[in-house]
TrEMBL record:
It comes from the Eukaryota. InterPro entries: Kinase-like_dom_sf (IPR011009). The lineage of its organism: Eukaryota, Fungi, Dikarya, Ascomycota, Pezizomycotina. This is Protein kinase domain-containing protein. Residues 24-55 are annotated as: Disordered.
């Protein structure tokens, strides 16, 4: 399930869905003007897109979204709390051409344990403007592939409250790395009780068909654009 982005130490007032362009070449003064400081790599916003973690005795680590691509960073303890990401070294993650293209066309919305939620901002009015993108490791891909298969099965049952997904996943030579779905919106905690009956009907329908959600809570119950309840 997804969770809101944690606060970033020393964060600037950059809007989450805005990313400054990056200049990786040193421009020659006589041919090109130098980019202003706000366009240098060090000043481009950096957002964690996975929970912090690491093996026992190893540095903590997480994936990072910056300059419209994905990176990985490491830091030593004593805390798993995210460090100031502008003071850590970013290691680039090589994605397949298909995955890199999908990442570059979308903007960050929320992070999750095994996937990140991104949005096709230029396709806001499409039926499936949201992208669920697996973290770049084999375990995350396998979990996302299983989730996509389950979502497709549930969609065929025509149960109310199931998020609508695009029937064709995003794939590369290693298999499924993401899938698109409808845009959903958080339900304020004070309004969750208004959806109790809807959730009861949905969960009963899942149980009758042999499915168990296992993690129903205010943070992962969302509404569609018409106000109906549905899980993310």
């Amino acid at each position: 399930m997804t969770s809101p982005l944690p606060p970033q130490p020393h964060a600037r007032n950059d809007t989450l869905l805005q990313t400054s362009p990056i200049c990786l070449e040193t421009a020659k003064p006589e041919s090109k003007p130098q980019p202003p400081p706000s366009q240098t790599l060090e000043n481009i916003p950096r957002y964690p897109v996975s929970p912090s973690g690491g093996e026992s005795g190893e540095p903590y680590q997480c994936y990072v979204d910056s300059a419209n691509r994905i990176w990985k960073t490491f830091w030593d303890g004593p805390s798993m709390r995210y460090p100031d990401l502008h003071k850590t070294i970013l290691h680039p993650i090589d994605l397949s051409p298909e995955a890199a293209a999908a990442w570059s066309k979308t903007k960050l919305l929320a992070l999750g344990a095994n996937a990140v939620i991104r949005a096709y901002e230029e396709e806001k009015e499409s039926a499936h403007p949201i992208l669920k993108f697996a973290h770049p490791n084999s375990t995350a891909r396998q979990l996302l592939q299983h989730e996509f298969e389950v979502m497709q099965t549930l969609s065929s049952l025509c149960l109310p409250g199931i998020a609508k997904t695009h029937p064709t996943p995003l794939v590369d030579e290693e298999g499924i790395f993401g899938f698109r779905l409808q845009r959903l919106y958080p339900i304020p905690f004070t309004e969750i009780q208004n959806y109790t009956r809807d959730l009861q009907i949905l969960l009963e329908g899942l149980h009758i068909r042999g499915y168990c959600h296992g993690d129903v809570g205010p943070s992962n119950v969302m509404r569609n654009s018409q106000g109906g309840a549905g899980d993310d």
